Structures are given as structure tokens and as C-alpha cells.
Amino acid sequence: MAVVSQLLTGLVAALHVYFLILEMFLWATPVGQKAFGRSAEEQESTKVLAANQGLYNGFLAAGLVWSLVGGAVAIPIRTFFLGCVVIAGIYGGFTATRKILIVQAVPAAIALAITLAIR
After folding, report:
1. What Rg value do the Cα atoms of the chain yield, rounded?
2. What whole-number distance in Å separates Cα of residue 55 and Cα of residue 20?
3. Rounded to whole angstroms, what are the CA distances from 7 to 57, 70, 76, 112?
4. Do 82 and 12 meet the contact criterion of CB atoms below 8 Å apart?
């Protein structure tokens, strides 16, 4: 189970690195427009906000990676950061788009449940 926790946490971290790239660097491109279903004008006018959001996703990814190499404190760190991702995903799912629940909250919730089961 510990290996499954690590693999799923790595997957969630990789997703957040992807979110960072998408929000910080690809937001106002056709890729960003397609991913978020917004017009070029909307994307351009919100790219500073999106970059900030992407940076936060990068911090979540960093915390999750830290939990994979954190030694004795790995599980508490992993639990904290996965919990943050779940909460952010639920909030985003209710305030932005339901897709966030599936893409962000569900994988993190599964990883969190498995992580809690090995404690």
C-alpha cells in the first residue's frame, strides 16, 4: 500500500506540474483556450491571474514531491498536501467547473485515502 500511495501522490504531483505549465505559460495560447473553453480575449485579460494560480499549483506539486523524499515526516507532509489538493479541487469544482472535481479532487482523494490507510 505504501508504494501505491507514493505512485498516486506522484501522479497528483505530475498533474499539478501540468496545471502550472498550462496556467503560467500556455494560458493565452490556443492550447489554453481549448483546455478552459474561453475566448482569446478572456484568456489574454486573465493571464496574470492564471499565472498566479499556476504558481500555487507548482507549490502543491513541490509539497507532494517533498512528501515522496521526506523521510520520517513524509506521511504527515503527504497527508497535508493531498488534503490541500482535495479542498482546492472541491472548491474549484463548485465555483469554477465541475470538471475540476474529477481531474483534481478525485485523484487526490484516492491518494489521500490510501495514504491514511497506511498510517
Report:
1. 15
2. 6
3. 19, 15, 16, 12
4. yes
